[in-house]
Amino acid sequence: MNSSKFKIDLSSLNEGQKLAVTTTEGPVLIIAGPGSGKTKTLVDRIIYLIAEKNVTPENIMVSTFTEKASKELITRVSNKVPTLNINEMYIGTLHSIFLRILEENREFTRLKRNYRLLDQFDQQYLIYQNMAEFDALDNMDSLLEDEKSRWKKANIIMNWLNKVGEESVDENKLRESKDSSLIALAETQTLYNTLLKKENALDFSTIQSETFELLDNHPPVLKTLQKKIKYIMVDEYQDTNTIQELILLKLASRNKNICVVGDDDQGLYRFRGATIRNILEFPDNFSQKECKKIYLSINYRSHPKIIDFFNNFMISQNWEMDGKQFRFQKDIIPNEKKTFIERPSVIKVSGETGKDNWHEDVYNFLIELKNSDRITDYNQVAFLFKSVRSDKVTALANFLETQGINVFSPRSKLFFAREEIRLLIGAVIFLFPQFKDLREDIKGPVIGYYEDCLGLFAQALQQKENLDLLKWAKTKALDHENIIKNTTTNEDIKLFNMPLTIASCQTMFK
């Protein structure tokens, strides 16, 4: 497209944002504090590259942390430049971009046509199905910590495999270790990769490892991608993991036009393999002073008192160890152009009066909020309690529901008492008969709850209006049973042809 047809207006940007938008060449680290207009900056940077630098969309790669953020970015760019064909861009989450690279170069990978993408349940279930093979590996006891349950073993193995994949740990180095559990992990990884190849499948971790191997083992593929992708932008860089960084640096090694955006104060996903090291040490991947640092420090969202509290707290902490800094030094600045109402944001109410009818007081308060247009929907109100399972909280929730105000409380007993939730749980148990094999792992009165859920679902299936659902559910349950057994026994046929009753469902379950 002809970029001269549109121009970008930088007048609405502050100095930090303007610098971030117009600094396009070489490695760039944008440290974007909370509420600093990061998405607006990314949108304008994309448009600036196309409008002012004459970069074609297909030469740009933009990664966001979530699909939702990706869609928002696409929408905002498209709204600003409706004539832009954004589909030519590599834009999405890192997983989706890596998957696209694999699909475009599938002939150089182990993947065949119609390969499967496993989610976490599929991944664990694949391991569970083949647990006998994993158990037969040497030194598996040291890895599984004497766990007896097959399902829990599968979960342990899955977590280890994902960790190894995200950290890009060399399987051969594990095998050379003197630690028996690491040797077992190497053998586990080999077996799991064999199963994935046999199943023609990928999981979310191996999307990354397969992409790395593709680029590492096929230089012509890497060279082609480097010629095509000339500008790379990565959002939420503090939440990337080791193998993601390795892939990104490979893609950027030719042009070095890689811009990463993030905030080391907002690293939240260490439990999923993310490492704050990536953003803290990003400049070290390049020669001295080659990487430009840009700070977005103005917070357009928060009250100045909140910002002051944050700055004072962060200053009071020690971020240095052995002469090395573990935080970028920065001060967040409030938006001076915005007027904040000076009023208490927290009100304390105490006293003995009204103690007996506090449910009515809460209800009346909610009604007043709605009638005065302070809220437009009751889901704009949140109650915070030490525990949502106390009798006091349950009583309040029950009272509000009787008054027509629905309560969403997933961790409370009330949530699991709802009919639709019990039906859903009953449906899952019915549709996956192998759940009966996991029964040994479930302790206590929850077994009775599961059986009640199954019974409720059975009752629903017996209603005339649900005959099509009954037929579909029986077929799917038999399909899932055969995933394990591989063959249909006479006992299976008898079970699935018998009249559906609560007793027959519970027979299935037990």
Provide an overview of this structure.
The chain is an alpha/beta fold. The chain has 23 helices and 12 strands. It has 4 domains: 189 residues, Rossmann fold (3-Layer(aba) Sandwich); 80 residues, no CATH class; 59 residues, no CATH class; 92 residues. 50% of the residues lie in helices and 8% in strands. The strands form 4 sheets. The protein has a 6-stranded parallel sheet with strand order 3-2-6-7-1-8, with helices on both faces. Strands 4-5 form a two-stranded parallel sheet. Helix 1 crosses helix 2, helix 5 packs across helix 8 and helix 19 packs across helix 20.
CATH architecture group name of the largest domain: 3-Layer(aba) Sandwich
Question: What level of helicity do the residues show?
Answer: 40-55%
| Uncertain regions spanning at least 5 consecutive residues | 486-510
CATH superfamily of the largest domain: P-loop containing nucleotide triphosphate hydrolases
Number of strands: 12
Q: Quote the distance from N terminus to C terminus.
A: 64 Å
| Whole-number tally of structural domains | 4
Q: How much of the polypeptide forms β-strand, as a percent range?
A: 5-15%
